[in-house]
Amino acid sequence: MNTIEITINNKKISVPEGITILEAAKSAGLEIPTLCYHIDQSVKANCRVCIVEVEGMKTLPSSCSTAVRPGMVIHTNSAKVLEARRVIIEMILANHDADCLKCHRNLSCELQKIANQAGVRTNRFENVLEIKEIDNSTPSIVRNPNKCIKCGRCVEMCRDVQGINIIEKIGRSSEIEIIPAYGRYLSDVACVSCGQCSTVCPVAAIYEKEDIDMVWDAINDPGKHVIVQTAPAVRVSIGEEFGMEPGSIVTGKLVAALRRLGFDRVFDTNFTADLTIIEEGNELLHRLETGGVLPMLTSCSPGWINFIEQYYPELLPHVSTCKSPQQMFGALAKSYYSEKTGIPVRNIFVVSIMPCTAKKYEAKRPEMRTDGIHPDVDAVLTTRELGRMLKQAGIDFNILEEEQYDDPFGITTGAAVIFGASGGVMEAALRTVYEVVTGKTLDKLDFHDVRGMEGIKEAEVDLAGTKVKVAVAHSLSNARKIMELIKSGKCEYTFIEVMCCPGGCIGGGGQPYHTTNELRRKRIEAIYEADRDIPIRKSHENPAVKALYDEYLEKPIGEKSHHLLHTYYISRKKRACS
Amino acid sequence: MLLKTLNKEARKSENILNALLEYQKSKDTNYISEEELAQLAEELGITESRAYSIITFYSLFSTKPRGKYIIQVCNDVPCYVNGSTNILEELEDYLEIRVGGTTHDGVFSLERTSCLGCCNMSPAIRIGEKIYGNLTKDDVPRIISEYRRKYYEEV
Amino acid sequence: MKKYSLDLITGNCGKIDPYSIDSYIETGGYDTVRNIFAQDCENIINEIKKSDLRGRGGAGFPTGTKIEFVYKSDITPKFLVCNADEGEPGNFKDRFLLENDPHQLIEGMIIASYAAGISKGFIYIRGEYNKAIGILEKAIEQARQKGFLGKNICGSGFDFDIEIYSGAGAYVCGEEFALIESIEGKAGRPRNKPPYPVSAGIFNKPTLINNVETLSTIPFIIREGAEKYTSVGTPTSKGTRLVSLSGNVNRRGVFEVPFGISIREIIFNLGKGIPHGRRIKMVQLGGASGPCIPPEMIDLRLDYKEFENNGLSMGAGAVIVIDDRHDILDILRNIMVFFRHESCGKCTPCREGNRHILNILDRFIAKTATEKDLSTLESILNVMTDTSFCGLGQAAPTAILTALKYFRYEFLLGIYKEYEIKNAV
Question: How far apart are CA A574 and CA C15, in angstroms?
Fold first, then answer.
């Protein structure tokens, strides 16, 4: 690539041709403040915070959208720039509910950060905020219009990545709002609760519904036996909340931290991920043998389940009846575990630590109550909420000694860990299904074709002479393509994994803020590293799972597992699902 | 199919704006209801949110019922300096509604509009698709009663 | 005798029947189209370049160069858009051309499209221009029947057709990318530039966008030659342009004037002066987004260079006269109400700025403003001009900024008593 010479703040530098001023400045060690800019999204250039002065230009161009040109002389902090930036930020603040100390995003807010960086100490503009109703209608996501700065990141995520376009820019001029059509509640529209909007929101205009206090109450209730499960993807991301390198694997520290919080038992959702593979693998084989509905679609991702129930209910027979690992865990906790320990179900409080906002909704589904009364999972905290809860408790994550999960839901496999990455469920299933069908030992455990960030991946496996085509899709715009393919009758796949969020659960809607595709890749690498480090890498070789079948469940897709580990789906088609 | 009711050839998706506009024009109430928009969006192959973003962006659309005849009063500078405020006030008095309102009988809605491009005959108003220019307060009753008569004759 | 108005492109207006193509053909209309196909595209582009024709929509970009950009692009299909979204208050010259001589525009569109290798044209016209839409629909139909539009035009092998696309009430759609978004069936909010429409416009295809007047000027240039066109005007601004004269003036209307004419001549010779012997308080040039100048400046000549030297832009050629009955701040308020209503809401400065300006202006009008209000006002105006995403936000402050320069006293009266100002001086 050609390089060109430019001057930034009196320093001559060589930069690649075609990059933006923002990127050039970064390479020169200058962080130009940005607000609407997001590295994985289209350049919007609408906040105008990143403006710079370029000699010879009449206006102050936005550095995110302006390419460098040979000989360009750029000033990122001239008097004109500093004044303009401050005026712009003050205008944003004059229309923003700046109750920063009580805000969910306090200390993680991008607006707060740039206002501080710009040295905003007072506001020359009168407050023009018109307080509007906060949408608390779903168990997953809260939309606070009073914080919205109209950057449009959530719109792009919802429309282009997830392809559902629930929230949009509505109206114009100062009356513009980012809301569902007719300002409806999120519970009244075909929102899937994936929470991807919340991961890109720079402020607290859309965020996970916070359930931390509910968990504190349970922990501090002497009558409650509080157990916690941790999803596969959390162990490779929670470290980021404490300044650790993205992709750090912190499983042992996570267990220790949860004990310090006061949980009575710390378990691993991986255990029920292994169980899912046994159940789902057997379901697939059953469908193959009995001429059942194919392709079979995975059912672990609650955002995806919300999507198919709302947008493609006619395809629901394709979905595996397996509950997600979170709900399998909950069901076992409130049956097997209760029986085994003698603790009554009403006294057991199950908390999940999930990378996901849709899990909050899933836990609230009425069909997810094994005894018909008590929810199988009582509270769901996202990775971000756990980070905040640990900070509330003053736990220094970095210096914690590593600890082990408790029995009986503590022994897990590499196959379960990779559930956290797109393609992981498929790979885990293939490892098991292959050996069950062929009776042979798989020599190469790594299915590289189904790994990575490619939107739709496919692979072919030879199952005792039968070639089986499988596919993996992540993010709902890709899921939609698969759905249309199935509807067209041209789908050649037998088994398809679908994850709602880009990259799978490691890119979930409840993962730490500032998630980017680069971070997703690092977390994926960590997931596969964790897989390699675990001695047992196939779900059907998990001794604890085997013991559970022997002791309690009897056999896969048997009567007991049908009752505890499987579920049903219904059409939830709403308006705007076309 | 709502759009089929329009006497036009089948719509292409890029003609979304005009399809919506023509549908609205076909209605005496000059607006697009929530139910209609959901169906129109489906027919046009766009999401309801996008359809809603369109009809809330362009000022010729309305999400609330309006009168059969929409009276748009230009109040931008060329009309303003030639007394458009007087015309506006006279219309409000005569119709007994404020700007943004609709008469009880559903015949008229009164709106302010951005420049109509009729500055050579300011102050100017537009009723339905017709322009009235060089107006004085005294013209208002005559023009309005003409439309009212027409409306009730049709009924 | 000095000629204040000419009829290079308005010659047919009022003389032919806009509903009849024959009426246009009788005056020699479409002769140029019949002859054009014998010529190279480069020749046509060169002729337009020689004429020095600049975009009449307001930005003033050289038309020939723009056509050449599209001509040189290898990407197909290419599109032409005639921007007839004339929404700038005080401008009505495009409506005048559309309603009086639609075929001249169609002819201009055919020539430009042939030169640039375009086969599909749109006329994006404001939804409020019903009469013009009706006239255009008829004109396009007639042109198709006569074989000037459609497949194999005049046996040349060149295909070109025009579709009318009606706007729906959004001033910002005059901005070329907002207009393109609107044609693509979305809310009309502008996109980043570059890439410019000439390389990635409608559905990311090369798109030539020109104003009605610009395209209507092309038949004259090709028919009569660039030399004849450039024989009028000034060394720095060639030919004629249409002026929309409105406000407090005896004869309002559209006038085709040679460049070089002064604002005074437009108001007093063409417009016959101010009614009832009143005086000019101020003149706004170009439209709502244009500068407000005091009567002392009306000897300013219509000339791109002269405007530039005075730090002014000509816009789409409106001249709005405001007489001495009116209060400057009241007029400015009216202008800001317009911009607040028409901002698309995309970028911060324009979305938030307009309402703050309006709020502060109200304090000046109520005579409760403070010195801090004045400095805040100036801050927003400058920041909006410097940092807004598109031309709308960049130009919205122009009226007040120029008023602050030429009518500062009126603002001071919002802060101080008259005697306080006098004592200070």
Answer: 59
State the DSSP H helix or E strand holding residue C100, giving kind and residue range, or none if neither. Answer: helix C93-100
Spatial distance between the Cα atoms of A103 and A144, rounded to a whole number of angstroms: 11
Residue C145's pLDDT band, with cuts at 50, 70 and 90, is: very high
Residue C346 has φ and ψ, to the nearest 5°, of -70, -55
Place of tokens 């690992």: A325
In this predicted structure, what is the pLDDT of residue C422?
84
C-alpha–C-alpha distance, residues C273 and C295, integer Å: 13
Query: Does B8 have pLDDT greater than 70?
Result: no
Best probe of the B interface among A156, A160, A168, A175, by most B CBs < 10 A, is: A168
Q: DSSP label at A161?
A: I
Task: Give yes or no for a contact between A380 and A363, defined as CB atoms under 8 angstroms apart.
Answer: yes
- Global confidence as pTM: 0.95
User: What is the SS3 assignment for C358?
Assistant: helix
Q: Which of A50, A109, A300, A322 is the catalytic position?
A: A300
| Residue B96 near residue B134 (C-beta atoms within 8 A) | no
CA C292 to each of CA C249, C262, C313, C366: distance values in angstroms, whole numbers, following the listed order: 16, 16, 11, 22
pLDDT at A393: 98
Show the tokens assigned to A382.
Answer: 């996202």
Mean pLDDT of C66-84: 96
Query: Once rounded to an integer, what is the mean pLDDT over residues C392-409?
Result: 97
Residue C248: its chain B contacts at CB < 8 A? Answer: 81-82
- What's the gap in Å between the CA of A40 and the closest CA on chain C? 17
Instruction: Please indicate whether residue A575 or residue A191 has the higher confidence score (pLDDT).
Output: A191
Asked if B60 and C127 count as a contact pair (C-beta separation under 8 A), the reply is: yes
pLDDT, tens digit, 9 for 90 and up, residues C316-340: 999 999 999 999 999 999 999 999 9
Across the interface, do A578 and B45 touch by the CB < 8 Å criterion? yes
Nearby residues of C74 by Cβ (< 8 Å), 6 or more positions away: none
Q: A193-232 pLDDT, tens per residue?
A: 999 999 999 999 999 999 999 999 999 999 999 999 999 9
Distance, in Å, from the CA atom of C385 to the CA atom of A238, rounded to the nearest integer, reads 45
Residues in C touching B118 (Cβ below 8 Å): 92, 95
Nearest Cα to A227, choosing from A236, A235, A219? A219
pLDDT digits (tens, 9 = 90+) for A92-126: 999 999 999 999 999 999 999 999 999 999 999 99
Band of pLDDT at residue B5, cut at 50, 70 and 90: low
User: Is C352 part of the contact surface with chain A (CB cutoff 8 Å)?
Assistant: yes
Q: Do C354 and A173 touch (CB under 8 A)?
A: yes
Q: What is the DSSP annotation of A309-357?
A: HHH-GGGGGGB--BPPHHHHHHHHIIIIIHHHHT--GGGEEEEEEES-S
> Which of A280, A309, A427, A497 does the annotation list as catalytic?
A280
**In A88-149, beta strands by DSSP E:** 141-143
Cβ-proximal residues to A566 (8 Å cutoff; 6+ apart), any chain: A279, A321, A322, A323, A557
Q: CA separation (Å) from A513 to A204, A217, B5?
A: 11, 26, 49
- Tell me the Cα Rg of chain C: 22
ipTM: 0.95
A491 included as an active-site residue: no
Cβ neighbours of residue A186 closer than 8 Å, sequence gap 6 or more? A135, A137, A138, A141, A143, A166, A180, A193
Report in angstroms the alpha-carbon separations of A358 from A192, A361, A544, A569.
7, 5, 28, 16
Query: Choosing among B39, B53, B114, which should be mutated to test the A contact, i.e. which has the most A CBs within 10 A?
Result: B53
- Is the Cβ–Cβ distance between C381 and A211 less than 8 Å? no
CA distance B108 to chain A (A): 24
Neighbours of A1 (CB within 10 A): 7
Grouping H, G, I as helix, E, B as strand and the rest as coil, residue C193 is: coil
